[in-house]
């Protein structure tokens, strides 16, 4: 594609050097990914500066360089007169708008749902995706568990764990449109909003789940975290708001000048959708839903009373999309489970293994509380400190878990460049002395899963919390493949000869 950057909507160019246009075949932000005909964007990250990699990008074939450092661009333009150099005020902003233009603005062919919140983003976005598909609207998914079309997962190496960088987002949008997908539900993280990864995207529906302390290793203050979340609702046509969460709901309602559907568990909240009288069985959940005075019984093969709230948010989204409450309720019994979100696996000797990648104190408290409601002899739970996150949160994971299981196995997820033993020690600091339950330690998640399974007996529940990002553990910058399910199958197969 012959690109004249000055003609791309939304890109603010301050100055250019060299040829005014370039034949562009790819959009890249990593110099090692550059090839003949690439446009290389000099993104400034937390660790490094893309301007330092201009030469490697050009050596790999980049024909255009977009950056914000005039001195470096002007110097490199003299060395490479055949390459187009474009000076912009904000590289991330330019990357977003250029990517949308390069891929032909596929977002305009999709009904876009953005989900933000500290907990529940993956679950709610997946519920939306599954509900829309059951209602006959082919819907994809972008989030922590990967990329999916309406038909299922597609291989795509995402640039970040949750919300990809802008160029990846628009490439995925293009893939979804090519696969005849009509809608997409995507997790939108606070970091993504702050880094303008969804710049230029107007969401048809924005969903708010909740807000609690998280990602302070990036945001530094809770207020910055909150303000970043609010940005999603400044780029939406409609919203779904959780009135039970005072941390963000008021701010959303203050900026929303478009249709809003609110939900709550509180009958006196005045919400549009009020859920209550929740009960659980081995087959799933049952609760009552009051939709503006019309009370219905909801049944779905899903688990967790907090997931009744997430399912209610998905129902509200389908209502925004024009589906009737009768159409929605009719398909809910066919809702599939969500990978790694109170995902129930039946083990030998009536063991119940639950995968729920709760990774915040609020989430681990909720999932342990819910697991305890199910019939069991003992509850064995794995909790983890996440090495690539805020160390101050780690003791809070232990404090939130204490006294809620018979055995707690403490380990590390995604140690990054940290010593796993140090991460485990930070978590352990949150326990009382003496411990209120048996505590075991493991330096890797694989060892921790095996230790939790080995500790279990007939009729026990084994809860494996926290967990993987895109089927991997992040260790010293590398994504090492990991699957709890594979470890579980191998463990019991070795013990019983089958699983």
UniProtKB/TrEMBL annotation:
Looking at the record, the residues that make up the Mur ligase central domain are 115-318
In what residue span(s) does the Mur ligase N-terminal catalytic domain sit?
A: 24-98
Does the UniProt entry include the keyword Ligase?
yes
State which pathway it belongs to. Answer: Cell wall biogenesis; peptidoglycan biosynthesis
> Subcellular location, in the record's words?
Cytoplasm
| GO MF annotations, alphabetized | acid-amino acid ligase activity; ATP binding
Q: Which UniProt keywords apply?
A: Cell cycle, Cell division, Cell shape, Cell wall biogenesis/degradation, Ligase, Peptidoglycan synthesis
The family assignment reads: Belongs to the MurCDEF family. MurE subfamily.
Give the protein name, as stated in the record. Answer: UDP-N-acetylmuramoylalanyl-D-glutamate--2, 6-diaminopimelate ligase
């Amino acid at each position: 594609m012959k690109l004249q950057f000055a003609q791309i909507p939304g890109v603010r160019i301050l100055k250019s050097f060299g040829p005014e246009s370039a034949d562009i075949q790819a959009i890249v932000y990593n110099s090692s990914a550059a090839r003949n005909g690439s446009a290389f964007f000099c993104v400034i990250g937390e660790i490094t500066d893309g301007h330092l990699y201009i030469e490697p990008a050009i050596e790999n074939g980049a024909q255009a360089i977009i950056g914000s450092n005039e001195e470096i661009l002007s110097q490199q333009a003299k060395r490479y007169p055949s390459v187009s150099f474009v000076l912009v005020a904000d590289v991330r902003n330019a990357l977003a708008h250029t990517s949308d233009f390069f891929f032909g603005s596929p977002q305009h062919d999709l009904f876009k749902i953005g989900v933000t919140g500290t907990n529940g983003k993956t679950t709610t976005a997946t519920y939306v995706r599954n509900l829309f598909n059951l209602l006959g609207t082919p819907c994809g998914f972008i989030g922590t568990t990967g990329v999916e079309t309406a038909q299922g997962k597609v291989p795509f190496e995402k640039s970040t764990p949750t919300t990809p960088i802008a160029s990846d987002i628009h490439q995925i949008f293009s893939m979804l449109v090519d696969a005849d997908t009509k809608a997409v539900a995507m997790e939108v993280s606070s970091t993504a909003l702050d880094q303008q990864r969804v710049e230029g995207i107007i969401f048809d529906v924005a969903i708010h789940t909740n807000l609690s302390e998280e990602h302070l290793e990036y945001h530094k203050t809770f207020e910055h975290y909150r303000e970043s979340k609010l940005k999603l609702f400044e780029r939406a046509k409609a919203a779904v708001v959780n009135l039970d969460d005072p941390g963000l709901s008021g701010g959303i309602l203050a900026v929303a000048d478009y249709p809003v559907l609110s939900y709550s568990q509180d009958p006196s909240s005045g919400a549009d959708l009020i859920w209550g009288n929740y009960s659980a069985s081995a087959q799933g959940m049952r609760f009552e839903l009051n939709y503006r005075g019309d009370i219905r019984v909801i049944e779905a093969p899903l688990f967790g009373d907090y997931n009744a709230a997430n399912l209610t948010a998905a129902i509200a989204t389908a209502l925004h999309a024009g589906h009737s409450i009768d159409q929605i309720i009719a398909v809910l019994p066919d809702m599939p489970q969500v990978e790694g979100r109170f995902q129930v696996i039946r083990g030998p000797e009536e063991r119940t293994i639950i995968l729920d990648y709760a990774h915040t104190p609020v989430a681990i408290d909720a999932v342990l509380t819910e697991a305890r409601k199910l019939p069991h002899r003992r509850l064995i739970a794995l909790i983890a400190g996440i090495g690539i996150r805020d160390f101050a949160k780690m003791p809070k994971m232990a404090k939130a878990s204490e006294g809620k299981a018979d055995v707690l196995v403490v380990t590390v997820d995604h140690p990054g460049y940290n010593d796993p033993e140090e991460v485990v020690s930070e978590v352990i600091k949150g326990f009382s002395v003496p411990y209120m339950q048996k505590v075991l330690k493991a330096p890797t998640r694989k060892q921790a899963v095996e230790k939790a399974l080995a500790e279990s007996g007939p009729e026990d529940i084994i809860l494996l919390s926290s967990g993987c990002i895109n089927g991997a553990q992040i260790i010293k910058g590398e994504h090492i493949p990991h699957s709890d399910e594979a470890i579980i199958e191998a463990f019991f197969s070795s013990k019983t000869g089958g699983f």
